[in-house]
Structure formats: structure tokens, C-alpha cells
Design a protein that fits this description.
The protein has twelve helices and 14 strands. With 389 residues, the chain is of the alpha/beta class. The chain has a single domain, classed as NAD(P)-binding Rossmann-like Domain (Rossmann fold, 3-Layer(aba) Sandwich). The strands form four sheets. The protein has a seven-stranded parallel beta sheet with strand order 3-2-1-4-5-8-12, with helices on both faces. It has a three-stranded mixed beta sheet with strand order 9-11-13. A two-stranded antiparallel ribbon has the order 6-7. Helix 8 packs parallel to helix 10 and helix 8 packs across helix 12.
């Protein structure tokens, strides 16, 4: 399989490139270094040093991996370069990670929010249009978010994309059962882009026969994969700051240092989670089961489990002996919610999930402890954090 990976220098993109290459795929990656630029702008960095893409690709070849080619293209801004690459490479599939992925970054300023919306939406529209205009019938796998459904308690299991409904006639009679797209309720500009992305994919699927899968993914945690462990130059990102450091990885660093585990608000917020190894298996599964031309966008709720943030904090605190600090939430979100989402596709792909438990938490804390000297304590908590316990 020939696979083009957009955003291939990123946290999910790079290990995906390695995994698909390891499976015998012909892989090309595209990136514009926007994440590296944001690191410099915000004075943040990965806890584990990240080699440049050319060095990463060379290291993969030296350790027995197949050739991975790198192309520096801004997918959202340079349509011609993207379309030319699609026409030349002629991928069987495109995996689309080329989006600004941080909720806090998308909400930190008007400029950051507008950049997130412009970059994410135009990247999606451009790759869909490039496939249509070049006549390349590639399966487009887009990394979405489970957060498109919002974080209100719904009182039922969120389906994988489509809700079964029956219309009520003027005299109360019920019509036949049919399916409609489940209502969206984005809580941030980042989640808004994922909603707009899905609608864009649905348009191209209906009008142009685009074959697309939207992975409504939960929070990804973990750092290493079977491939990244081969050589230090293949290492993946380990973010611990309040902008890009997702909650599980951030808790691991705090626990490794013996610092308070920072819980925002009540801690009663429930979120979906998936380990990075499981996310890679889901991507493989999605690539192996593409929709047919003319079918609607296939939706996968890519989560392994749902957990309350406070419950996660207690696991890290119990393993490390750290205290839990209840902080005023810097985010605009419900103080508490329940989240139940149907995730049959994950198990149909054959994933045996790596769950968040004492054993997996201890391994992650040990990894963070090995890099403790590189931690920037000033970036580990919100700037105005006041510890309440």
C-alpha cells in the first residue's frame, strides 16, 4: 500500500509512518514544521529530544526500515504543491494529521484560534480537493475528535457517527427508522475545526465519491511504540506543558518529580482515552476497511476507555505518593459530565486495549523520571495556578 501521511513529523504522524512502513507500505510524509514553530513561539519543548525529519527517516533506514520520503509542504496554504505530490506519488491512502491539535492553544488568543480554524479546515479541504482534481482514488483517513459531540452529559451511548431516529408525523404517527448524523456540540475552536472537517468530508463524499473515514479519537497517551524504541533518533514527542501536554502524560511528569497532580476544576470531567499503540492499530484497521465510493463518511469512535480526571489523578498519586492539587480550571467546559461512546470498531479492528492502571502508569512515570532533568517547571502548571489542596 502506498500511503501519504500529512503531518508526519507529529506526535501521531511519525509513529504511524514507522508502523505502516514496518508493515511493508510505501510511505511518504508531509509536514510544514508548524508544531516546531509553535514550540519556539511558546518557549516549550518535548521532554525527549526530537531529531529533524531527514535524520529520523535516515535512522529508520539504518535500523532496517523501508525508505520513508519527506516533503516540506504547507498543506493548508500550498495547494499546488500538495496536488502535484498527490499526482506524482498516487497514494492508495492518505492519513491526515496535518492540523493544529491543541485545545488550549486554539483558545489562548484570537490569533491562535483563527490560525487553528484556517489551518485545520483548509488542510482538510485542500487534500480532498487534490484527490478529486488529480483523479487519485485514495482512501482519506482523517484524525477527528470525540469532543465534536461536546462534553455535556447526554444520558445515552454516543453512536459511531450516526444516530437512529424515527420522524413523528403531524398526527403523532411514527415514520420508518433511519439514520442521521449525530448532532455536534464543539466546546473549543479546535473542536469546531473537527466539526467543519467532517462536514467538508461529507460534502466531497456525496458530491465527488471521496472515500473517507473520520476517526473521532479520544486523548492519546503514552510515548513509545515498538518502532520508536529501536533508536533514540526515532523517538516520539513527550509533551509536558499546559498547552500540548495532554492530561495523562502531564500527570506522569508531575508524579515523576513528586510534584502535585494538577486537577482542573472539580475533576468530575469524563474524557475518552486511547494508548498510542492502540491508536496505531486502529489506523491500520481503518486503512484495511475503507468505505466504497458513494458511501457516507465512515466514523470510528477511537477510544479505549472513558475515565474521570479525578480518578486518573488518584492512580498517579497512589503510585507516586504525590499529592493532588485542585486548581481553578483555565478552560471553559462543564464542571462535570458523563461520557459513554460506542467503540465497537476499535474491538472489531482486533485491538486489545492498553488501559490506564497502576502498571501502565508506573511505566509512564519511570519514563518521565528518566528525563526529569529536562522538565521546565514553569510550564508544568497554569501560570496563575493557586494550589488548594
Amino acid at each position: 500500500m502506498r500511503v501519504l501521511i500529512l503531518g508526519g513529523d507529529g506526535y501521531c504522524g511519525w509513529p504511524t509512518a514507522l508502523r505502516l512502513s514496518e508493515r511493508g507500505g510505501t510511505v511518504a510524509i508531509v509536514d510544514n514544521f508548524s508544531r516546531r514553530r509553535i514550540d519556539l513561539e511558546q518557549d516549550i519543548d518535548s521532554l525527549i529530544p526530537i531529531a529533524l525529519p531527514e535524520e529520523r527517516c535516515a535512522a529508520w533506514a539504518e535500523t532496517g526500515g523501508g525508505p520513508i520520503t519527506f516533503h516540506k509542504i504547507d498543506v493548508a496554504e500550498d495547494f499546488d504543491a500538495l496536488a502535484n505530490l498527490v499526482a506524482e506519488f498516487r497514494p492508495d491512502a492518505v492519513v491526515h494529521f496535518a492540523e493544529q491539535r491543541s485545545v488550549p492553544y486554539s483558545m489562548m488568543s484570537s490569533a491562535a484560534g483563527r490560525y487553528t480554524i484556517r489551518n485545520n479546515l483548509m488542510a482538510t479541504i485542500n487534500i480532498a480537493a487534490a484527490l478529486v482534481e488529480t483523479g487519485v482514488d485514495a482512501h482519506l483517513v482523517h484524525l477527528g475528535s470525540i469532543g465534536v459531540y461536546g462534553y455535556e452529559t447526554l444520558g445515552y451511548e454516543v453512536p459511531e457517527g450516526y444516530l437512529k431516529v424515527r420522524r413523528v408525523g403531524p398526527k403523532g404517527q411514527l415514520g420508518p427508522e433511519q439514520e442521521m448524523l449525530h448532532p455536534f456540540n464543539p466546546v473549543s475552536k479546535y473542536h469546531l475545526t473537527k466539526v467543519l472537517d467532517h462536514l467538508g468530508l461529507a460534502y466531497f463524499a456525496a458530491k465527488n465519491g471521496l472515500r473517507a473515514t473520520d476517526l473521532h479519537q479520544g486523548t492519546v497517551w503514552g510515548v513509545t511504540t515498538a518502532e520508536t524504541r529501536r533508536d533514540p533518533r526515532l523517538a516520539n514527542r513527550f509533551d509536558h506543558d499546559t498547552i500540548y501536554g495532554t492530561v495523562v502524560n502531564r500527570f506522569a511528569v508531575q508524579a515523576a518529580l513528586g510534584k502535585p497532580i494538577s486537577v482542573y476544576g472539580s475533576g468530575e470531567q469524563t474524557r475518552g482515552f486511547i494508548h498510542i499503540e492502540d491508536a496505531l492499530q486502529c489506523i491500520e484497521g481503518a486503512l484495511a476497511t475503507p468505505p466504497r465510493a458513494g458511501e457516507r463518511v465512515k466514523v470510528v469512535n477511537q477510544i479505549s476507555e472513558s475515565r474521570r480526571i479525578l480518578d486518573l489523578a488518584h492512580i498517579f498519586a497512589d503510585v507516586s505518593g504525590s499529592q493532588i492539587a485542585m486548581l481553578e480550571s483555565p478552560r471553559s467546559e462543564p464542571e462535570a459530565n458523563e461520557l459513554a461512546a460506542r467503540n465497537c470498531a476499535v474491538f472489531n479492528f482486533g485491538v486489545s486495549p492498553t488501559l490506564i492502571n497502576r502498571e501502565s502508569v508506573a511505566e509512564l512515570i519511570d519514563l518521565a523520571r528518566d528525563r526529569a532533568s529536562a522538565v521546565d517547571l514553569a510550564k508544568l502548571y497554569p501560570n496563575d495556578a493557586v494550589f488548594a489542596g
